[in-house]
Write a structure and sequence with these properties.
Layout: H1 7-21, E1 37-42, E2 53-62, E3 65-72, E4 81-83, E5 97-101, E6 104-109, E7 116-122, E8 130-136, E9 139-145, E10 148-153, E11 156-160, E12 174-179, E13 183-188, E14 194-198, H2 201-204, E15 211-216, E16 220-225, E17 230-234, H3 236-242, E18 251-256, E19 261-265, E20 270-273, H4 275-278, H5 282-285, E21 289-295, E22 298-303, E23 309-313, E24 320-324, E25 332-334, E26 342-343, H6 346-349, E27 356-358, H7 389-422, H8 440-453, E28 461-462, H9 465-471, E29 480-483, E30 487-493, E31 499-505, H10 513-537, E32 548-552, E33 559-563, H11 570-575, H12 588-608, E34 613-614, E35 623-625, E36 631-633, E37 640-641, H13 671-676, H14 682-697, E38 702-703, E39 712-713, H15 714-723, H16 740-756, H17 767-785
Parallel strand pairs: 26-28, 28-32
Antiparallel strand pairs: 1-2, 2-3, 3-4, 5-6, 6-7, 7-8, 9-10, 10-11, 12-13, 13-14, 15-16, 16-17, 18-19, 19-20, 21-22, 22-23, 23-24, 25-27, 29-30, 30-31, 31-33, 32-33, 34-37, 35-36, 38-39
């Protein structure tokens, strides 16, 4: 009798069966349903041949505006032509989309202020005259090919100048449309079924199944199924020549030409088939693109680094060329409407203001299949993200209750397996910064790939590496202003005038066998901190949290871009300046207001962030001060989501298996957390209590006192005096003693600090209670400053007011 298979093989087999049984909910997303680049084909009636001449067309940036412009891909000397209508010169284009086909160019817009119009230029007859072929509701998608254009008005397909007439059943709703040579295909809403109309073999060979992305060319069409596999159908010769490699991988865009197929992967790189004929040249092979179009044997894409339009393939002058220096990567839209963020620098292309930008595309990406062939970390990552709300609801409804039950069963099996077969692993290290082990490398890469593939949040931009290098003078030491949880911090000025702080993960490696493991551990720490900060700060927005402006993950770099805080850290003002003291530390009421601001930021993380966030490294050096001396909490590299939400990458600061590996800073770390590895939001409360004691005493968290040979914690020095009502013994000597009315508020905060640093977490207040106490203390100071009086009776601030802690 043969031995039973290993447990991990049983698990993989079960998961594979579950994946087959359960309809997946993870979708890919096309970059832009309203394309801003197109390829048109023209013929010259005076030429003895009917060979088509290809033009690359785009919404081209021109100063503070943009215009519809087309240029020959084969004739470098030919000047581009601007297309406009009426008496305009096209410099203030109202268009949001450009499509083209055989002998025509078509532009539609605007999307921001209906009604929407579509204008048609006949390129074979002349350049300047156009006709309006549509005016009405905003088109949610538009596609051109052959001699026709089709779009979606809501979920209804509508076509213009099409040989196949109207779509037979207008009651069918579509979520995507693709026009080819004499045919049109659409994806049916909810079912993901492909339906094609018109003539040719693409209509008679429609595949069965559920699909999410769709593209059509001259003789064949392609779609991406819910497993991330690209499949093509149509003319047998075209499909055979341009069949993509079958693999499960995140896909952003598909472009189809004449017997060529190109794919923009989830990491924004391009692959084309046939490889020798359609692949991008070496100079562009590893570049990242925003959008992609194909026609005939020509492929054009918008380069992510500078938004230039690059074209390559048969008939392109020199095999490849830059046709336009700057084009719109997508339609301009109000920045507030961009639910998944904006493309870096796109506001300048849309007119220079911050109110209008090009939205970053939302979308789900396909999961990593259990038995899929591996390619690279970014292409085989399992990822989740946002989709357009309507499609998300559709996907959830179509999955049904059955898929939810199957998913629940899969989760139970996985949890059981992990607990049983990882329970015998070595105990968690007691180090404050536990060094990651070897298996953490792919976990960090998987988290990063999953996070980046779904796109950033509304407030986060993706910056090109070249722009950040230029802003920091190639990360010059002269620009360096400090360090964070995963690397150096540089001060820089962006081209739009914004002052920013740029955190770059260190890439130093001293080399040699002895340092290789340590260097790998540092690299993993930096990657984990990068993913954690990006995942967490893209979720939150509060005036007392340092705002994350954007990130860069190009070329192996891990860079975060923050708002610049000109007044540095609270730690520096408390411990590195003697006199005169900075304004927020120059009086006792000012110190209490500063503490209140920081407390509100932490309270937001604990109470109002969804899901809640535990910072794990609250300290005075992580409280920054802006130009108005407002306190803001920073450095989320060690933070965790309170529910350890794996899908969002919130647990990226720790290993997958050990979410509570101790991390923090000596002197601020919760003793209960350090000893028992029991992490709750009360651990942040303890750390903040230490900060309060720093503000009251002016002492560092750990330092030598009274000539003692060994350093002591400020908790051990200050709390006994506070408990014995001798607060004046520990107050910062650089300030005069509080006035009688100030002393009441300061003592009240002293009692609060003592409560925050109690050994048992259940005895500490919540951050909401901390905020309440500080608000009452600040209000008492304000009342006296405004000339009010205490009056008689019981004091407004009493010791009992701080004893409102709740058990955890």
């Amino acid at each position: 009798m043969s031995p039973p298979p290993p447990p991990h093989r049983l698990l993989l087999a079960l998961l594979a069966v579950l994946l087959l049984l359960s309809p997946p909910l993870l979708l890919a997303s096309s970059s832009f349903p309203l394309p801003t680049i197109a390829i048109a084909a023209t013929t010259n009636s005076s030429s003895p041949t009917t060979q088509k001449h290809l033009l690359a067309c785009a919404l081209v940036a021109s100063g503070a505006a943009y215009r519809v412009s087309c240029a020959s891909v084969s004739n470098r000397s030919a000047a581009p032509h601007v297309y406009s209508y009426g008496s305009g010169d096209g410099t203030s284009s109202p268009f949001s989309a450009v499509v083209a086909g055989d002998g025509y160019l078509c532009s539609a817009g605007p999307t921001s202020s209906p009604p929407m119009s579509m204008r048609w230029w006949d390129l074979n007859e002349g350049h300047d005259e156009s006709k309006r072929v549509y005016r009405g509701e905003v088109l949610s998608a538009v596609s051109g090919g052959g001699e026709s254009v089709c779009g979606l008005v809501g979920e209804t397909m509508q076509c213009w100048r099409c040989p196949w007439g109207q779509v037979p059943d207008r009651r069918v709703g579509f979520s995507a449309v693709a026009v080819g040579g004499g045919f049109v295909c659409g994806l049916v809403v909810r079912s993901g079924e492909v339906r094609c109309y018109g003539g040719g073999e693409a209509v008679g060979r429609v595949p069965m199944g559920r699909y999410m992305l769709l593209a059509a060319g001259e003789r064949h069409a392609c779609a991406v199924d819910y497993g991330g596999v690209v499949g093509c159908w149509g003319d047998a010769a075209a499909v055979a020549a341009a069949a993509p490699v079958r693999m499960s991988r995140a896909v952003s865009t598909v472009a189809v030409g004449d017997a060529i197929t190109c794919v923009l992967w989830g990491n924004w790189t391009v692959s084309c088939w046939p490889e020798g004929e359609a692949s991008p040249p070496p100079a562009l092979a590893q570049k990242q693109f925003v959008a992609l179009e194909a026609k005939g044997k020509v492929v054009c894409g918008v380069l992510m680094s500078d938004y230039s339009l690059q074209c390559w393939g048969g008939g392109v002058a020199g095999g490849a060329r830059k046709v336009f220096d700057r084009v719109l990567p997508g339609p301009c839209a109000p920045s507030k409407s961009c639910s998944c963020g904006v493309w870096s620098g796109s506001a300048e292309l849309c007119g220079g203001g911050s109110d209008v930008s090009v939205c970053y595309p939302c979308g789900y990406t396909p999961p990593q299949m259990a038995l899929a062939p591996a390619s690279n970390s970014s292409s085989t990552s399992q990822s989740k993200g946002k989709h357009r709300p309507s499609n998300l609801v559709i996907a959830l409804i179509s999955a049904g209750a059955g898929s939810g039950l199957v998913a629940l069963l899969a989760a139970v099996v996985v949890v059981y397996y992990l607990r049983r077969h990882r329970g015998s692993s070595s105990p968690v290290s007691g180090r404050i910064h536990a060094e990651p082990t070897g298996p953490a490398v792919p976990r960090v890469e998987r988290r990063l790939s999953a996070l980046l593939s779904k796109g950033p949040n509304t407030t986060v931009e993706q910056f090109p590496l070249a722009a950040l290098r230029a802003a920091t003078e190639f990360f010059s030491p002269a620009q360096r202003i400090g360090s964070g949880s995963f690397g150096a911090v540089y001060r820089a000025s962006l081209p739009d005038g914004r002052e920013v702080a740029i955190k770059r993960a260190e890439r130093r490696d001293t080399g040699g066998p002895s340092s290789s493991s340590a260097a790998a551990a540092r690299r993993i720490d930096h990657e984990a901190a990068f993913v954690s900060e990006l995942a967490l700060l893209s979720r939150v927005n509060h005036k007392n949290l340092v705002r994350l402006l954007g990130f860069c993950a190009d070329g192996g770099e891990r860079i975060l871009v923050y708002e610049f805080m000109p007044n540095g850290t609270l730690h520096d003002h408390l411990h590195k300046r003697s006199t005169p003291l900075s304004p927020p530390l120059a009086s006792w009421p000012a110190r209490l207001r500063l503490a209140l601001g920081a407390a509100r930021g932490i309270e937001y993380m604990h109470t109002y962030a969804v899901p809640p966030i535990i910072h794990r490294d609250i300290k005075s050096s992580n409280i920054l001060l802006d130009a108005c001396w407002t306190a803001k909490v920073s450095d989320f590299g060690l933070s965790l989501l309170n529910n350890l939400d794996d899908a969002g990458g919130g647990n990226a600061g720790a290993g997958d298996d050990d979410p509570c590996v101790t991390a923090g800073t000596v002197g601020y770390m919760d003793p209960e957390y350090y000893r028992l590895q029991h992490l709750t939001d009360k651990s942040d409360v303890y750390s903040f209590g230490v900060v309060l004691l720093e503000l009251l005493s002016g002492c560092k968290a750990i330092q030598k006192y009274d000539g003692s040979g060994s350093p002591k914690n400020v908790v051990d020095i200050a709390v006994p005096h506070i408990e014995c009502d001798r607060l004046h013994r520990v107050l910062d000597a650089r300030l005069p003693l509080p006035t009688p009315w100030e002393m009441e508020a300061v003592a009240y905060v002293g009692y609060l600090a003592a409560d925050c640093v109690r050994l048992a977490g259940r005895d500490r207040p919540t951050m909401s209670e901390v905020v309440g106490v500080l608000e009452r203390a600040v209000a008492a100071c304000d009342e006296y400053e405004d000339g009010g009086g205490g009056g008689g009776g019981e004091p407004a601030l009493s010791r009992s007011c701080t004893d409102g802690s709740t058990a955890t």
